[in-house]
Every structure is written in C-alpha cells, then in structure tokens.
Amino acid sequence: MFQKPKGTLDILPEEIVLWQNMEEIIRKSAACAGFSEIRIPTFELSGVYKRGVGATTDIVKKEMFTLFDKGDNVEMCLRPEGTAGVVRSVVENGLFNEALPLKLYYIGPFFRYEKPQAGRSREFYQFGTELFGAHSPSADASVIALASDVLSKIGIDSELNINSIGCKECRPNYRKALCDYFESRKDELCDSCRERLKTNPLRILDCKSKICKSIAENAPKTIDFLCEDCKTHFEELKKNLELMNIKYTVNPKIVRGLDYYVRTVFEFVSDDIGAQSTVCGGGRYDGLVSELGGPDLCGIGFGMGLTRLILVLKAKESKGLITLPKAKSPVLYIASMGKKAEEFALKTTEELRRRGIFAECDLCERSLKAQMKYADKIGAKYVLVLGDNELDAGVAELKNMADKEDRREIKLEETADIIERI
Ligand code: ATP
Ligand code: MG
After folding, report:
1. Distance between CA 158 and CA 277 in Å, rounded?
2. What CATH number does the domain containing 383 carry?
3. Which residues neighbour 266 within 8 Å (Cβ) at sequence distance 6 or greater?
4. How many domains is the chain built from?
5. Nearest ligand, CA of residue 62?
6. What number of helices (H) and strands (E) belong to the chain?
7. Are residues 146 and 52 in the same domain?
8. Is the model's pLDDT at 199 over the cut of 90?
9. Substitution candidate for ligand 1 out of 117, 251, 278, 285 with most atoms within 8 A of CB
C-alpha cells in the first residue's frame, strides 16, 4: 500500500466544504475590491525565484523542489511562492500596459522543502494578491484591508502587525547599525545567522531560534532609521488603516523573509494555533518588476496560508467556539422496491438533478430497510417510498425526515414539481 509523500496532505471530502466555503469568501471579497484571478504555472525556470525571491533567502537556499527538463536539462522549480511567478507573467504578457493599478489574485498549491510539522507542510495552499502601479500608502492600506476582510469573514481572529523596512535610500544606514549591533554579539548567534550577518543581516530579526530572538530583542529598529519619504509613507499608512477602522500594532521585528520588500511589511497572526501562527504575510516590492526584466513598476501584495487557516478553524471548532459548515444533504431520497419503482426512482432523480436539485436513489440494490437507513445516514430531507402498489396507484407518501407528523400523499407524476416548490 502506498502512502502520500512526506509533508503532503490529503484534503478529504469531509473537509472540502470548509475549503469551498473559504474560497467562495475569498473570490467574492477579491472581486469586490477589483482584483481579477490569474492562473500561472505551478513550476517556473529556477531563475524566476532566484532573481525574484532572492538567492540568499531560506526559500531559495533550502526550500525549493528542483526538477530538470528532460530535453535540454534546464533547471526548474515547483513554485515556492506566488509573487515572482505573477511578476514574470505580468512582464511576459505586457499586462503593465493595461489601466493601472493592475490588481491580480491567485489561489493554489505551493511547494517548499521544509521539515513537516503542524501548520508547515511541503505542499500547502495560498491565496495571494498583487497590486501593481500604485505608490500611494492608500494602496498598501487597501491591500491590507482585503486580507483583513477575508480573514474576518472566514471567522479568523488575528492581529495585524505592520512595520516599515525603509527603501534603498535609508536601508543602508539601518543595515550598518544592525551589523554593528549583531557583530558585537556574533559569537552567540546560531550558525545560519552568523552567515546571514554577511549576506542579509535583516533576516536575523526573522530567525526562529530562541537565542537569536532574544538577541534581536534589543537590536536597532528599522523605523528609527527611515528617511523622510519612508516616514511619511508609514505615517500615512497608519492614518489610512485608522480611517478604515483596521486595528494594527507596529512591530519593529517584522522584516519578512523575501529579498524584494521595501517600506511596508505586514503579518496577520492568529493565537488559535501553536508556533506556526502567521496566517498571512506581505509587503511592498517596488524593485521586483524591473528586476525580472519589466518596467519600473511598483507593487504590493500578500500571501495567505489557507492550509493554516483550516487548522485555525478546526482548532476553534474543537474549543466549541464555532460550528463548521457541513456538506449539503439531498432534498429527496427515493427508496424503491421492484424493477418498475427502481426505474421511476432513477428517472425522477435525474429530472430533479437537471433542475439543479440534489436528489438520490438506490444504486446498490439494497433492501427497503437498508435504503431507509442510508437515507437517514446521508441526511435526506424528504423520502419517497415506492413499491408496486404506489406505482399502480400513481401516488405515494412523501415523508419529512425531520418532522414525523409531516407526511403527504403526492401524485408521482408531480414529484419533481412538488420537490422544486418545497
Ligand atoms: P513562516 O514564517 O511560517 O515560515 P513564511 O514567511 O515562510 O512563513 P510566506 O512566504 O510569507 O511565509 O507565505 C505566506 C503564508 O503562507 C504564511 O504566512 C503561511 O501562512 C503560509 N505558509 C508558508 N509556508 C508554509 C508551509 N510550509 N506550510 C503551510 N503554510 C505555509
Ligand atoms: Mg517559511
């Protein structure tokens, strides 16, 4: 017997209702905010991520699933995140020539070679958005507002953390101060962070190790080093969030893992699950489009971890805080005895389905008793029991399974009409 690959998840029918519900909320909210869906490949040339995410990031250095094209032996990767691929597509298809801002969203699977644990899998689903061509802090605010709206509609309580990591004008000063600080405590840092000190010291602030976290506690803060423009941008963003009644905390430790972020970075954190508590992360990436060969077009977006959101919902349900939606049950189950009744059941079930009504009948040649048991198990709302007598008379009794008193004689030829009106 085969087992699924390590770090992957089977999403079974019982759980799928939750996913469909969540995706419906996302699509509706995204459409209301003017975002169109884009579907791009689940793998790209590795260069897209090396350039677009950053060669020094954990994602590129440790977490990519690499494959080689059999023909010309080109290196490709399963997509570890959404932004780089979307930017590649925007550039390749010239979408930047359309009316700006260009607003795109995607939902789909992503792949990272990570140590599997609760909330961290090797294949996981994300909902992500990218908004191109708007410099204003109101663009940052409206992207954050979409994430916040979706999370609250799905039923997730989360805290929004925001920060500004400056731009290429002011970040060098900050970087220097940060290097000086960490240099003085270099010997205490973990191996990865000693390496990060050389390649990308900002990322030390993101390290999950306890000791690095405690050292980072007193590190210089990005917001104390912002240039005037970045400072104004951040102040305006905060004002806009307040205007929209979106609560936030300024958290100077948020720097985000990807190389391309400038100015605004943010995360939504839920305390209903354990260590992997970040359910959404994003930021502004003004240099990325040109980095991937496109025009000088700014952008801002986020990635929301849907696999983690499902965990949050299940955790809330097990604490009795919410009830989760269940799969729909049939409006009618037609139980039948004998060939003629069986044929009528099959025909009428199909008639109802063509009218868009969920109906079922026996496909397993079960006894009448077993059929009734099955109808009860699948939660059928009404049951029609048919034998030769009913067929000869052309009438049968329609039973409401939730109300024993509610029984009515109906003409068989009117079954579909009656059920449609119920
Ligand atoms: P983390 O700090 O948890 O590793 P990240 O910074 O690597 O997150 P992003 O690249 O910002 O994550 O991805 C956006 C969201 O996707 C995360 O906030 C998280 O909810 C989800 N996510 C990321 N990696 C995984 C994974 N391996 N399994 C499940 N969900 C994930
Ligand atoms: Mg990660």
Report:
1. 9
2. 3.40.50.800
3. 144, 160, 161, 162, 163, 248, 254, 281, 282, 283, 302
4. 2
5. 2
6. 15, 16
7. yes
8. no
9. 278
Distance between Cα 58 and ligand 2 center (Å): 7
289 is written with which tokens?
């489009």
Instruction: Say if 336 falls within a structural domain.
Output: yes
301 touches ligand 1 (CB under 6 Å) = no
Share of the chain above pLDDT 70, in %: 100
Kindly state whether residues 283 and 149 are assigned to the same domain. Answer: yes
Same-domain pairing of 308 and 396: no
Predicted local confidence at residue 231, as pLDDT: 97
DSSP class of residue 297 equals -
Clarify whether residues 347 and 393 are in a common domain: yes
Smallest-distance ligand from the CA of 257: 1
What's the CA-to-centroid distance between 151 and ligand 1, angstroms? 16
Q: State which residues form the domain around 77.
A: 13-170+226-318
Give the global pTM.
0.93
Same-domain status, 284 and 344: no
In this prediction, residue 362 carries a pLDDT of 97
Report pLDDT digits (tens) over 309-332: 999 999 999 999 888 988 899 999
For 326-380, write each residue's pLDDT tens digit: 889 999 999 999 999 999 999 999 999 999 999 999 999 999 999 999 999 999 9
Q: Which of 224, 226, 223, 221 is nearest to 167 (CA)?
A: 226
- The residue contributing the CA closest to ligand 1 atom 13 is 303
- Is residue 260 scored above 80 in pLDDT? no
